[in-house]
Design a protein that fits this description.
Length: about 525
């Protein structure tokens, strides 16, 4: 049933997962924002390990943070009221309006349906957003034709009906079978749902689009729905993605003697891989995600990234032989960094007495003399900090965020960062005390080769990124690079959203969408 709200809505649904819904939403949001329309993104339910922490300390999907930026808004938990963070193939942590709600298996989650408190959260978040916006751009999840979950679905047609939205259906030609994708989806949805579809988008096209002109005509004639356009695959697009699907294929740079070679261990439950997006853009960096020990050969620095299941991923690293690899790496005088779950793995012991993950305890990699206890309370917040372990390079500031469920005793080690006062919720969970009443984070070994931190987004600030890279360059015998080069990377990144919006505007006929929204908003 539609609700009387001020905002009008357009929904972007897909023929499947990873067809490009998130970026199509971001492009539409940017175009509407540039037209002076108050627009906000909304995804009722997101399944992703790539999350973002809002200024209030709430947790949402990274894609909605990007879409908020496209709208000129600060990210807010109402933009993604339900976030599912998989802990195994059948179980996920459920985050509701930014806070941990429960951990459920799939059957228990989907048995709750639309009469549950979960859908009440979806409804209340949507209505708050709609009360302060002219337009809401909704993103669906997975396929628009999940017929087995139709009566329990919270994110596709349930949200479309809540918002009384018209729908754009996106198919991915890059994976093949786009005619079956689109026509099969339209055949499986109900006549009422199909009547809401105002246009089709064929995404990720490679090659000569003229060769697909017959395909466009066929789809229009077969479905009666206009094809808004064919979006060519845009190379070198460096916008944050929703999850790590195919990340190992996207970033497999060849190591070289004249670059800083960085290996990120590809964990089964890797989270927040966007920590490394700007590192990848540096001209003097070769970064690759490695799935086998052999692929890490030649790395100047190895990074163990964040993990949603630290104990399980630690066992995985041991089974693959990475424990011996990282020990040998450090023995050769090369740097090892652990972030969040990776930081916990570097220590002596990880205990999980309350069963936050799998329960029990495990011996860590024993490269730092630290102990971690998993805690039921999730620590989240945005952070302003100063680096303490790079002081020989001069003062360096950091801005990032924390999101973890463990308390770590730093043992005899020096901390890595001073978190400024009021920078993070529950700062008492961090060790020690800073000079202004703030907290201390992380631990660094005396030789500086092994260090770990809970801070995500470390490398987003050009000052810290370049200072750390130059330390690696000196160790390798390379001349340091001026900070201006890293600043240029950030400056270029600021224009990527507009580049993508221009691409969407150039290749799609958005007239039907603008006509619908203009008639609804009066603009």
């Amino acid at each position: 049933m539609a609700h009387a709200t001020r905002a009008r809505a357009i929904a972007v649904l897909g023929t499947g997962s990873d067809v490009g819904k998130s970026l199509v939403v971001a492009g539409l949001c940017r175009l509407l924002h540039r037209a002076g329309i108050r627009v906000a993104p909304f995804k009722a339910q997101n399944m992703s390990l790539n999350s973002f922490v809002t200024s209030e300390g709430g947790e949402i999907g990274r894609a909605q943070a990007l879409q908020a930026e496209a709208c000129g808004l600060a990210p807010h938990v109402d933009m993604n009221p339900i976030l599912l963070k998989p802990e195994s193939d059948a179980r996920a942590q459920v985050v509701v309006q930014g806070k941990v709600h429960s951990t459920l298996d799939a059957q228990a989650y989907f048995s709750r349906g639309r009469n549950s408190t979960l859908f009440q959260a979806v409804r209340s978040s949507y209505e708050r957003l709609a009360a302060h916006s002219d337009v809401i751009v909704i993103e669906g999840a997975g396929s628009a034709a999940e017929v087995n979950l139709r009566d329990r679905d919270l994110v596709n047609w349930a949200t479309v009906e809540l918002a009384d939205a018209r729908v754009v259906l996106v198919g991915d030609i890059d994976r093949g079978g786009v005619f079956a994708q689109v026509i099969g989806t339209l055949d499986l949805i109900t006549p009422e749902e199909r009547a809401r579809v105002c246009g089709l988008v064929i995404n990720k096209f490679r090659g000569d689009r003229a060769l697909f002109a017959d395909g466009v005509r066929f789809l229009h004639e077969r479905t009666g729905i206009p094809v808004l356009g064919v979006l060519p695959f845009l190379r070198d697009l460096t916008l944050d993605q929703e999850d790590s699907l195919g990340v190992e294929a996207r970033h497999q740079a060849a190591f070289a003697d004249d670059r800083v070679n960085i290996a990120v261990l590809l964990l089964p439950h890797m989270s927040n891989f966007t920590d490394f997006n700007l590192l990848i853009q540096e001209a003097d960096v070769a970064l690759r995600y490695v799935a086998t020990p052999a692929e890490a050969a030649g790395a100047d620095a190895v990074i163990i990234p964040g993990s949603k299941s630290t104990l399980a991923d630690l066992a995985y690293l041991r089974a693959k032989g990475f424990d011996a690899v990282v020990r040998d790496h450090v023995h050769r005088g090369r740097e090892l960094l652990g972030i969040c779950g990776g930081y916990q793995m570097l220590g002596s012991r990880i205990a999980d007495p309350d069963g936050v993950e799998t329960g029990g305890q495990a011996t860590g990699l024993e490269l730092l003399q630290i102990d971690t206890i998993m805690m039921p309370e999730k620590i989240t917040g945005q952070v302003d900090a100063s680096a303490l372990h790079l002081q020989d390079e001069g003062p360096v500031s950091v801005r990032g965020y924390v999101i973890h469920m463990g308390r770590t005793d730093s043992g005899p080690h020096r901390p890595c960062f001073h978190l400024h006062r009021n920078a993070v919720q529950s700062t008492d969970q961090f060790h020690g005390g800073g000079p202004d009443g703030g907290s201390l984070d992380g631990a660094v070994r005396e030789d500086g080769l092994v260090w770990g931190t809970y801070l995500h987004g470390l490398f987003d600030r050009p000052e810290f990124r370049r200072t750390w890279l130059n330390r690696l360059r000196r160790r390798k015998g390379l001349v340091p690079v001026e900070r201006a080069r890293s600043q240029q990377v950030n400056d270029t990144q600021r224009h990527v959203l507009d580049r993508w919006a221009d691409h969407v505007e150039q290749h799609l006929d958005l007239t039907p969408i603008w006509t619908i929204l203009r008639s609804q908003t009066g603009r």
